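Input structure tokens:
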């Protein structure tokens, strides 16, 4: 996706194309284990952080310090960051840069001209693709065992929230600021299905990604609204949609459960927290019925 909602988190939503990234190489991969790796994508930040040794990480993106945008905000405060400029990256003297097609074009072109080793990634739309991506990143940085361990943790987290055959399913929609939602063919959609929810985005005319108006949601609500929380202080218009009285009036026909906005953006290790949030929401709803 491209474009901006005008807020930092909105920009992140558009720029990461939510869901993580699948591997493609640009230039030659390093012959030895890279010891100065730079990430230029928020989803790659998370993978790199969890599969690399701390000394291998030269820098992450500035999103890594944003608690609304990244699951790393409380973990990576001591790691250097960049704002995706070629000048910043070159100054770090990296032996490998992880980037995506959503990374700044000028930066990508400059790094190519300077023959800086790069690994290019695209967006995976399935859990299987996301796990494959982790393994590939881990191999690139010489840490296959760490990658395998992360994959095992994700698989265990998903298995823990997968309901048994015949268990009741719940209609749901992930509804974030501005009514931004995930439709069919997305990683979020698969996670919903695996956790016992039926994503109803299609009945609002939503494709893979898009916005659902408050009016359409109120007119035809799902059983569960998986939404973030309005930002503290002075919320933006997009935040206020989530706190609109019309949503509250739909209770108890529609239960609202917390699904942090930062979980919508990426796959990889973020899927562990995504699974936990969905499992908790399902237990809350079924326990109250």
């Amino acid at each position: 996706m491209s474009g901006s909602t005008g807020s930092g988190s909105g920009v992140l939503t558009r720029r990461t194309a939510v869901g993580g990234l699948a591997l493609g190489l640009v230039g030659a991969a390093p012959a030895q284990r890279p010891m100065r790796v730079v990430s230029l994508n928020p989803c790659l930040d998370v993978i790199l952080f969890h599969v690399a040794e701390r000394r291998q990480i030269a820098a992450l993106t500035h999103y890594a310090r944003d608690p609304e945008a990244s699951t790393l905000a409380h973990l990576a405060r001591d790691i250097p960051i960049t704002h995706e400029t070629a000048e910043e990256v070159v100054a770090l003297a990296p032996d490998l840069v992880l980037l995506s097609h959503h990374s700044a074009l000028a930066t990508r072109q400059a790094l190519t001209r300077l023959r800086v080793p790069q690994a290019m990634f695209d967006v995976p739309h399935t859990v299987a693709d996301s796990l494959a991506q982790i393994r590939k990143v881990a191999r690139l940085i010489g840490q296959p065992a760490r990658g395998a361990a992360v994959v095992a943790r994700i698989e265990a987290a998903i298995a823990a929230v997968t309901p048994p055959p015949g268990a009741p399913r719940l209609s749901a929609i992930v509804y974030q600021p501005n009514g931004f939602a995930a439709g069919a063919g997305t990683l979020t959609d698969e996670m919903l299905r695996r956790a016992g929810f039926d994503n109803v985005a299609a009945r609002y005319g939503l494709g893979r990604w898009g916005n659902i108006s408050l009016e359409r949601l109120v007119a035809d609500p799902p059983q569960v609204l998986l939404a973030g929380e309005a930002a503290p202080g002075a919320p933006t218009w997009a935040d206020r949609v989530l706190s609109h009285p019309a949503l509250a009036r739909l209770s108890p026909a529609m239960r609202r459960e917390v699904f942090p906005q930062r979980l919508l953006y990426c796959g990889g290790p973020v899927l562990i927290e995504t699974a936990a949030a969905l499992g908790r929401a399902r237990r809350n709803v079924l326990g109250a019925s």
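The two ends are 38 Å apart (CA to CA). Confidence is low (pLDDT under 50) at residues 1-20, 22-30.
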